[in-house]
Each structure stands twice: as C-alpha cells, then as structure tokens.
Amino acid sequence: MIDLYYWPTPNGHKITLFLEEAGIPYTIKPVAIGKGEQFKPDFLAISPNNRMPAIVDTAPADGGAPISVFESGAILLYLADRYKKFIPQDLRGRVACTEWVMWQMGGLGPMCGQNHHFTQYAPEKIEYAINRYVNETNRLYGVLNKRLDGRAFICGDDYTIADMMSYPWIVPHERQSQKLEDFPNLKRWFDSIWARPATKVAYEKGKAINQGIPVMTEEAKKVLFGQTAGVVKG
Q1: What one-character-per-residue DSSP string does 125-140 give?
Q2: Statement: 91-195 belongs to CATH 1.20.1050.10
Q3: DSSP secondary structure, 24-55, as one string
Q4: Which of 55, 101, 108, 134 is deepest in the core (most CB within 10 A)?
Q5: Verdict on whether the full-model pTM lies above 0.85
Q6: What is the pLDDT of residues 37-76, one digit of tens each?
C-alpha cells in the first residue's frame, strides 16, 4: 500500500497519474498547503523540504521497514522501478527517460512555477520578471514540441513517467500565456494524455480533495511565499 501525501497541484497530479495508470492501491493523505500543513513536524520527517508530494511505501519490496520518498521525480523513479512500469527497461531507453524527468524537474516545473508567481500572485506586476518567465516557458514548450516530432510520447511509442512529469505543468497553459495551437506536436500529445481514463480519474480525485477550499487567498500567500529557514528548525 502506498500512502500519498498530496495536494492537487501539478506536482501532486504527477503521482496520482502514475498510481491510477498502474492500478496500485493507495491512500491519499491530504496536505493543505495553503493552511501550512506541510510545515508540521510529522510531515517534515517524511519530506524534509516541506513540500508535497511525498509517499510512504508501507510494504516495500525488500520486506523491510516502510520507505518514505520525497520530491516528485524521485517518487516516480521509485514507483517505476518498484512496479516495473512506465519506464524503459533497456539501457538507452532508461537514460532518455531519466533525462526528460530531470528536464522537467530542473526546467519546465521551476520556470512555469515562476511564471505563475509573477503573473498571478506577486503583489507587484514586474514587467521584466513576467517577460522573463513567460518567454522561458515558451522556449521550453518549443523544446518539448520538437522532441515530440514523430513521437507519440516523450520517449517514443510508450507512455512513461517522463510524460507524467510534464503533462500537469502544461495543463495551466492559458495561465502561462501560452497557446497550444502554436505547438502542434505538443497539442497532439497533450490531447492524447487527457483522453486517457486514468488521467480523468486522477484529476477528479484532485477536485474532490480541494472541494470548497479557495485556490489562493491572501492568507495562503503569506503561508506559501517568503518562508525562511525558520520553518525547518528543530
């Protein structure tokens, strides 16, 4: 059984996409990030960066004590290896898949996140910052669009964790000031993933978890932005 510490953000959706596709039993442990639940000591023991998602595999393959994993890329690599699903088993395929997992972790996710921050949440509209991150988001969309030329998915014919990593960060493309019509290969890929039954189930579960809770209040902004080392002391 997998315990998933989760909130319906792009990084959270990555993990439910995998678990639903793989048909693995799991229990969602909601972490209401706007309320600061990610800073509680018991969660810090699982996720030392105070970020969700995180998982606990209560019955790992080695038969030992439960294993906790934080960081969405590490979680998907762990699950893919644990269940031998959604990652190529040949050397070259695995290298390519890992490259695109890291590309998302180091590029697409952080740049889109800054895009969201400066276009949606920053108290001041800083033109330089907005242009910087909107343009970099556009460049990264172009990188992915080129990669998908002649490929059904990022690593070829098979749907993998590389796709699960990137898809949730493309979902809010309109908020990122991007038009999928400008990226035909990306749009085809995006539409094909949304058509998968497991994708729809994963996103519906996210809506159910977040039901009735405002997306971003002023109080939530205070919790989410501007934290210092003080939150991890002790």
Answers
A1: --HHHHHHHHHHHHHH
A2: yes
A3: --EEEEE--GGGTGGGSHHHHTT-TTS-S-EE
A4: 55
A5: yes
A6: 999 999 999 999 999 999 999 999 999 999 999 999 999 9
